Amino acid sequence: MEWNVYLSGEIHTDWREQIIAGCREHKLPVTFTSAVTDHDASDAAGDVLGEETSGFWRDHKSAKVNAIRIKNLIEKCDIAIIRFGDKYKQWNAAFDAGFCAALGKPYVTLHSDDIVHPLKEVDASAMAWATTPEQVVDVLKYVISK
Fold first, then answer.
1. Residue 55 C-alpha from the chain's centroid
2. Cβ(2)–Cβ(79) under 8 Å?
3. At a CB cut-off of 8 Å and minimum separation 6, what does 11 contact?
4. 3-38+71-145 belongs to which CATH class?
């Protein structure tokens, strides 16, 4: 079976690449999907629908256009990895975790221990909490290979 793993969350570090490389190293049968990780492109997703003078409406349209991709990819994934970084609040990642929970999709959170408290509800529905991309690879290796 080829596993479909959705990578959600923080876009400012190379955690996605580390997980992808680790899975390739272990020859795991995994296909990875993700939201658009180019911040400027994501912010401009709704611009094709017409110019907005209000930042709220520009963000609103772009969020909806991005949600087409995100909703479909999460619905099709076997498991999601949801990364919360230290530098920015990833409200979108929390939303993705809630969507996974509502759909009954298993997900693993990836974040440092200093934000355990604010993520307690998100972690409570997760199948695992990892602090490093290597731990995520180990979880994937276990669930896919055993």
1. 25
2. no
3. 37, 39
4. alpha beta
